[in-house]
Specification:
With 441 residues, the chain is mainly α. It has 18 helices and 2 strands. Belongs to the Ca(2+):cation antiporter (CaCA) (TC 2.A.19) family. Cation/proton exchanger (CAX) subfamily.
Length: 441
């Protein structure tokens, strides 16, 4: 009986006495309370363990969903294994032609995923900043390729790769946007204010490229071989300043003038399009942005190293290989994004990517590379030679004329695409002069 009483905290001996004295046996309430507290501790411990397991499962499911959304949701991602395959071929055989081709194919899905991630960020930042982000990271491939090429001393390759990206964005990407958008919607309108500002910046870039070339070819330099380099560096600083002011002008000072037409309430009141939302969170988008940019940097190193070898292996001019082929992979994100935006009647977003990307390359990436060359002691300048400068000047004039009306249709898009084919054929027939060959070494 004693052990039973001990369980409930009852004293093992009984004291005899009157009821009035209150000397009957009573349970020890403190022991009961202590047992209740122990049960609470066990329950809380069990709850904390189950909650931690639930958190881990939630994180695991979130990571799986994010990978599925970003990696396995697009058929173009089937080309991603070509990147590691290019690295493998380089280490095993060193065949520059295959390494260049595989690297070029491998950069296409990476560039497309950059476009997709920046499109997701546009849901959180708005269409104006979203277009700027898309243009920025859509040009990440060109910037990384240029830095690696500049590090290797291939100055003319840097110039031509950037020039090729500008030509591709203005003719091919914009042309495809107009063409496919015109097939879905016969005629589309866009905000002329943004197009006018970008056209002015592009003409300023042409002037900055044309004057060093004219100075070099007319042999009117004050200091031979030095004046054009000094002029290029000064012009680069001015171009960077102008581009920074243009960003403040479009995003802050005159923000109301750059609202896309399809965002004004009286433009698309009868639109029946479903409301779309982001597929990944803001934090996930930034993480994927860093991962994909790093992969692009690694693959771009192999692409640059194999460029000249591919030109020899394929018996193609280096002008064509360095100007026309790299934008195929680098501008894949811009091309797919612009076509998608145009077919959804978001032509302002297409212009923000195509024309905005060209403006950013000419007014930011190009002068930035000149300053990098200045810091590293490389004579990178804005002298693109007459042939390349003439191709850029004619392209900007043609595109500016097409943007004057503020409308687009499939015929304008077809004209721009055909113009790009002419430019590509011109570079295929172009051969470097002896002075140009010295710049690539």
């Amino acid at each position: 009986m004693d052990y039973k009483l001990q369980i409930f905290g009852v004293k093992p001996h009984l004291q005899m006495g009157s009821l009035d004295d209150g000397s009957t046996c009573k349970p020890d309430n403190k022991s009961l309370f202590t047992m209740d507290k122990d049960v609470d501790v066990v329950e809380k411990g069990t709850f904390s363990v189950s909650s931690s397991v639930g958190d881990r499962n939630m994180i695991r499911n979130g990571v799986y969903k994010s990978i599925k959304t970003v990696i396995f949701s697009n058929k173009l991602n089937l080309l991603m294994p070509f990147g590691p395959l290019a690295i493998l071929v380089q280490n095993l055989s060193g065949h520059n032609g295959w390494v260049f081709l595989l690297s070029l194919i491998g950069t296409a899905p990476l560039a497309q995923r950059l476009g997709y991630i920046t499109e997701q960020l546009a849901f959180y930042t708005g269409p104006t900043v979203g277009g700027l982000l898309n243009a920025t990271f859509g040009n990440a491939t060109e910037l990384i390729v240029s830095i690696y090429a500049l590090k290797s001393g291939m100055i003319h390759v840097v110039q031509r790769s950037l020039l090729g990206s500008i030509l591709s964005n203005m003719l091919l990407v914009l042309g495809c946007s107009f063409f496919f958008g015109g097939l879905v919607l016969k005629q589309q309108a866009f905000t002329k204010a943004t197009a006018t500002v970008n056209a002015g910046l592009l003409l300023m870039a042409v002037m900055a490229l044309l004057l060093p070339s004219v100075l070099h070819n007319t042999h009117t330099e004050v200091h031979f071989g030095k004046s054009e380099l000094a002029l290029s560096r000064f012009s680069s600083c001015v171009m960077l300043l102008a581009y920074a002011v243009s960003l403040v002008f479009q995003l802050k000072t005159q923000k109301d003038l750059y609202v896309p037409l399809n965002e004004e309430g009286n433009k698309n009141e009868n639109s029946d399009d479903p409301i779309e939302g982001p597929e990944v969170s803001k934090c996930e988008a930034f993480i994927w942005l860093a991962i994909i940019t790093l992969c692009t940097a690694v693959l771009s190193d192999y692409l640059v190293d194999a460029m000249e070898g591919a030109s020899v292996a394929w018996n193609m001019p280096i002008a064509f290989v360095s100007t026309i082929l790299p934008p195929i992979g680098g501008n894949a994100a811009a091309l797919t994004s612009c076509i998608m935006f145009a077919m959804k009647d978001k032509l302002d977003m297409s212009l923000g990517v195509a024309i905005g990307s060209s403006t950013q390359i000419s007014m930011f990436v190009l002068p930035f590379c000149v300053l990098i060359g200045w810091i590293t002691g490389s004579p990178m300048d804005l002298n693109f030679q007459l042939f390349e400068t003439a191709a850029l000047f004619i392209t900007i004039v043609v595109v500016a004329l097409f943007l004057l009306e503020g409308t687009s249709n499939y015929f304008k898009g077809l004209m721009l695409i055909l113009c790009y084919l002419i430019v590509a054929a011109s570079f295929y027939m172009h051969q470097d002069s002896p002075d140009d060959k010295e710049m690539t070494t």
